[in-house]
Amino acid sequence: MNSTVEKLRESLRELQVQLEKDAQAARERFQYRLTNGRVVFEEEARRRGRELKVRWSVFLRRARPWEIVTAPVIYSLIIPFALMDIFVTIYQAICFPVYKLPKVQRRKYIAVDRHKLTYLNFMQKLNCVYCGYCNGVVAYVREVAGRTEYYWCPIKHARNLPDRHEQYQNFLEFGDGESWDEKFIEMKGRARACESCESCGPGGCH
Question: Is 202 helix (H, G, I), strand (E, B) or coil?
Fold first, then answer.
């Protein structure tokens, strides 16, 4: 099992390297760069984007009536998303130091940058800001919850699940009662040893 997990991790690392190469190629192709985490477009790319922009009035005319009618329902979710963001941030600020768990860096999960694309109109930029924030909050909360689950109940489920958080691969097998107590204590110790490492989760450095 351990060798299989290590092979999967190595494959994941190789995939991440390839994804970064692809991202760099895209940056060169579309003429932008990242400076201190901020997107900076070259003037030619900004000019070309402005020429491709669809006016917001045209964008609204293209929308189906029910898309417009349901818009308030979608945007009303900003309240629970923002509250979840606040409460989870407070939770990890209070509890993770007690558990000696490495804190999740919120800024790594919430990316709001698509509004910088000059080929998007005002309505499209607003939608992209909203989606970027809400999906980022979900990813951030998922990692906080995953590290919490690692600390308190690191046992895999009996059935396969379609997608799990990053820590799940380190969990103990369902039904392995013989290993449970000893490995549970060991896993908590490993989580505490990694407390000061910002680039890793409780399962160890990646």
Answer: coil
Same domain, 43 and 12: no
Q: Residues 6 or more apart from 128 whose CB is under 8 A from it?
A: 114, 115, 117, 120
Number of structural domains (the chain) is: 2
Residue 186 and residue 93 share a domain: yes
Assigned domain for 198 exists:
no
Q: Give tens-digit pLDDT for 92-142.
A: 999 999 999 999 999 999 999 988 888 899 889 999 999 999 999 999 999
Q: Are residues 22 and 35 in the same domain?
A: no
**154: which 2 tokens?**
């690191």
Residues in the chain: 206
Tokens matching residue 18: 């390839």
Distance set, CA 160 to CA 98, 164, 186, 199 (Å): 32, 10, 25, 28
| Residue 117 identity | L
Task: Name the nearest CA neighbour of 120 among 49, 67, 63.
Answer: 49
